[in-house]
């Protein structure tokens, strides 16, 4: 039985002459991470602002955990944890005070708020510095506090708007790990980014947004398939390469096989899944494999195909 | 209301940690009130005492009368100190050395001339460096000469008489009640002493900056993204705004109360009936908050709100008499000052200074509430813009 947490249907928003969001629709199930991938100005933040009740849409509907969302709705908003793109914390309050304030704003009773503050401080790795004013934190610590506030009330839907912008690699990795853990615990996650590698790592499904429109939506493989590209595997080695290529060509996942420059070149569906079979088959055919190179078509290529421009333009 | 109080509690915690807020709300107004009050203390309390010398070359009844009937009462009231010099030279030396503001010289034959209805005069040697003291001395001599003139004319009108008749006439004339007298009527509105005036003036001036920390922090929070974060929570936007207003009101009331108590204890300011003062403070805080709310709805950024708020606070304070008494200027300025809460606040304190109870401040309090209602009402029509994330 599906457990749909977010349903967006035909969202529209115009600012003056600019159609910022133009008929965007998608849904997210519990435990699923959905990524909105697009360049700056594509309409990701406007879409998120509508979903969080910060902006009134000109058209379309949003339903969160079964409740329709408007700027005044309480039930729907209570199910959302919002992590804005820029730091939205009080620097002259401590992390614990920041968390306590937002916990109470979300209506958590005092005892429950105390418990959740302690838990969230632990989750975001700020338990040791919880009583220090946030202005004394490093950039990464502030980012983690920024995310922690969104987790306080155990939302069914966590909305993160480019949470890793300007974050050092170590903190970025910690943030991504936290999100993976939350999704594995059943939280639905809506994640916007213009970093392709983050979308590929985190997201079960991805929506590609440009000029306010959802150009395509699906799993990574579905999106890649949409543009007709396949994985490429190159097996370098010695021995009977021709025999190896012929043997591999007989596998169901292999679309084409050839020998070029002392290596077997293979065009494959789902290279990662097929890799073990490819190695076993080529070794059985008399090839001594020295190295393997897998080249999977990425979302950058998909984006280029769908929009005619690079993701970071 | 729970949300509003939660937001106000958070804001107040931030303000307590913000030293600039404490400086503006408490320290600066107290220091300025101290400086103004101490500088102008002597002017107000009427403690200026002029020093005079008297050289009596006459030694007659009229000369003694000048000393006892004119200079005596003035000395007893603390307005002047009079010392008697034995010679004109020593009297002149006192003036030249600046020891006295002026020396009265009653010339020989003064009393006889008065008795004979002949022209008589008292000389005043004035210190050029003490123009006011000299002017007062001339006035004293002039007033006595005016009285003497009345006697002289009475004697002249009766015609040639004996010396005894002249003396009796003079005595009767002196004993007759004056045609015109000045009566000190106790006014219900008293002028505030400088300590109180500047304590109140500075307090109400800085009140406008203090309340700004509450309501205009909406703009700070919008810039910093925390306003959007609050609006994403299941709370009403108007509750957020109400929280900011509560912050302004609490900051305003606390700062004014602390300043009133501190200036009373430390500077000796007399604010008047505590309940009356409390009513004035509450109404003043409401008026200041409403003005600053209007400024916040007009401004687009916190910096703009800060600059505009400062300008509004300064203009209203100058016009309303926070720095100097505008009522003494008279005319259009005095009338215009009544369009400011500052003027009504100070007027309310003047009403209380007469010893009146809280009922005396009903008028000023109502005027401040009208001011709050008008400016707050305009702000209310624009509040939708303020609570956009």
Strand content of chain A: 25-35%
Helix content of chain B: 55-70%
Strand content of chain B: 5-15%
Radius of gyration of chain A using CA atoms only = 23 Å
Shape of chain B: elongated
Structural class from helices and strands of chain B? mainly alpha
Q: Oligomeric status of the shown chains?
A: heterodimer
Identify the overall geometry of chain A. globular
- Taking strands numbered 1, 2, ... along the chain, how are they ordered across the largest sheet of chain B? 2-1-3-4
The largest chain-to-chain contact, stated as pair and per-chain residue counts, equals: A-B, 31 and 21 residues
Question: What is the helix content of chain A?
Answer: 25-40%
Q: Helix tally of chain A? A: 11
Record field, number of beta strands of chain A: 14
Uncertain stretches of 5 or more adjacent residues of chain A? none
Write out key terms for the chains shown:
heterodimer; A: 313 residues; alpha/beta; six-stranded mixed sheet; four-stranded antiparallel sheet; 14 strands; B: 389 residues; mainly alpha; four-stranded mixed sheet; 18 helices; 4 strands; 6% strand
Task: Please provide a written account of the structure.
Chain A has eleven helices and 14 strands. Chain A has helices at residues 44-51, 75-78, 95-105, 110-123, 139-151, 169-184, 196-202, 220-226, 241-249, 271-284, 299-307, and strands at 4-15, 18-29, 33-37, 59-64, 67-68, 80-83, 157-161, 188-193, 205-210, 213-218, 231-239, 254-260, 263-268, 287-295. Chain A has a six-stranded mixed beta sheet, with helices on both faces. In chain A, strands 2-1-4-5 form a four-stranded antiparallel beta sheet. A four-stranded antiparallel beta sheet of chain A has the order 12-13-11-14, covered by helices on one side. The model of chain A has no long low-confidence stretch (mean pLDDT 87). With 389 residues, chain B is mainly α. In chain B, 69% of the residues lie in helices and 6% in strands. Chain B has 18 helices and four strands. In chain B, strands 2-1-3-4 form a four-stranded mixed beta sheet, sandwiched between helices. The interface between A and B is medium-sized, with 31 and 21 residues.
């Amino acid at each position: 039985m599906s457990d749909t947490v977010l349903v967006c249907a035909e969202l529209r928003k115009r600012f003056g002459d600019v159609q910022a969001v133009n008929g965007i629709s998608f849904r997210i199930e519990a435990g699923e991470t959905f990524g909105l991938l697009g360049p700056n100005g594509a309409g990701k933040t406007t879409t998120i602002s509508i979903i969080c009740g910060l902006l009134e849409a000109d058209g379309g509907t949003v339903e969160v955990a079964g409740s329709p969302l408007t700027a005044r709705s309480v039930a729907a908003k209570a199910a959302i944890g919002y992590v804005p793109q820029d730091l939205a914390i009080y620097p002259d309050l401590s992390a614990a005070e920041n968390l306590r304030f937002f916990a109470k704003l979300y209506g958590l009773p005092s005892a429950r708020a105390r418990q959740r503050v302690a838990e969230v401080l632990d989750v975001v790795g700020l338990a040791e510095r919880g009583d220090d004013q946030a202005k004394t934190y490093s950039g990464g610590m502030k980012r983690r506090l920024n995310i922690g506030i969104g987790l306080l009330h155990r939302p069914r839907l966590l909305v993160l708007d480019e949470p890793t912008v300007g974050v050092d690699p170590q903190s970025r990795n910690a943030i991504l790990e936290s999100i993976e853990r939350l999704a594995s615990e059943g939280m639905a996650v809506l994640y916007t980014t213009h970093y392709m590698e983050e979308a590929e790592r985190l997201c079960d499904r991805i929506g590609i947004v440009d000029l306010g429109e959802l150009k395509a939506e699906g799993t990574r493989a579905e999106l890649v398939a949409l543009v007709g590209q396949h994985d490429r595997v190159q097996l370098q080695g010695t021995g009977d390469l021709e025999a190896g290529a012929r043997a591999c060509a007989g596998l169901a996942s292999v679309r084409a096989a050839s020998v070029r420059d002392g290596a077997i070149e293979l065009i494959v569906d789902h290279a990662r899944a097929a890799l073990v079979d490819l190695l076993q088959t080529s070794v059985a055919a008399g090839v001594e494999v020295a190295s393997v190179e897998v080249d999977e078509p990425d979302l950058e290529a998909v984006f280029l195909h769908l929009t005619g421009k690079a993701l970071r333009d | 209301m729970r949300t509003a109080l939660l937001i106000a509690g958070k804001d107040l915690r931030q303000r307590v940690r913000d030293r600039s807020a404490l400086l503006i709300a408490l320290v600066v107004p107290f220091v300025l009130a101290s400086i103004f009050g101490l500088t102008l203390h002597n002017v107000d309390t009427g403690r200026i005492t002029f020093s005079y010398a008297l050289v009596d070359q006459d030694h007659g009844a009229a000369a003694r009368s000048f000393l006892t009937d004119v200079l005596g009462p003035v000395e007893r009231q603390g307005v002047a100190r009079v010392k008697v010099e034995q010679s004109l030279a020593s009297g002149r030396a006192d003036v030249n050395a600046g020891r006295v503001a002026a020396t009265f010289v009653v010339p020989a034959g003064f009393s006889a001339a008065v008795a004979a209805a002949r022209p008589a005069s008292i000389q005043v040697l004035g210190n050029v460096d003490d123009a006011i003291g000299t002017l007062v001395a001339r006035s004293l001599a002039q007033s006595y000469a005016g009285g003497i003139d009345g006697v002289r004319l009475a004697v002249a009108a009766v015609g040639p008489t004996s010396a005894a008749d002249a003396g009796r006439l003079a005595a009767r004339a002196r004993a007759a009640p004056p045609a015109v007298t000045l009566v000190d009527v106790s006014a219900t509105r008293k002028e505030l002493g400088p300590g109180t005036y500047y304590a109140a003036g500075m307090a109400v001036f800085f009140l406008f900056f203090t309340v700004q920390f509450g309501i205009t922090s909406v703009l700070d929070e919008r810039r910093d993204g925390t306003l959007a974060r609050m609006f994403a929570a299941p709370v009403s936007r108007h509750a957020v705004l109400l929280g900011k207003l509560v912050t302004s009101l609490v900051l305003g009331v606390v700062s004014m109360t602390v300043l009133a108590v501190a200036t009373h204890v430390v500077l000796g300011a007399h604010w008047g009936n505590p309940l009356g003062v409390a009513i004035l403070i509450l109404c003043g805080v409401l008026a200041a908050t409403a003005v600053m709310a209007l400024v916040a709805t007009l401004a687009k950024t916190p910096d703009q709100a800060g600059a505009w708020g400062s300008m509004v606070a300064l203009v209203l304070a100058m016009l309303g008499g926070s720095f100097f008494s505008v009522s003494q200027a008279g005319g259009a300025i005095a009338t215009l000052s009544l369009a400011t809460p500052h003027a009504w606040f100070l007027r309310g304190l003047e009403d209380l200074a007469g010893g009146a109870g809280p009922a005396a401040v009903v008028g000023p309090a109502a005027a401040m509430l009208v001011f709050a209602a008008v400016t707050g009402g305009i702000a209310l029509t624009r509040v939708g813009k303020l609570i956009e994330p």
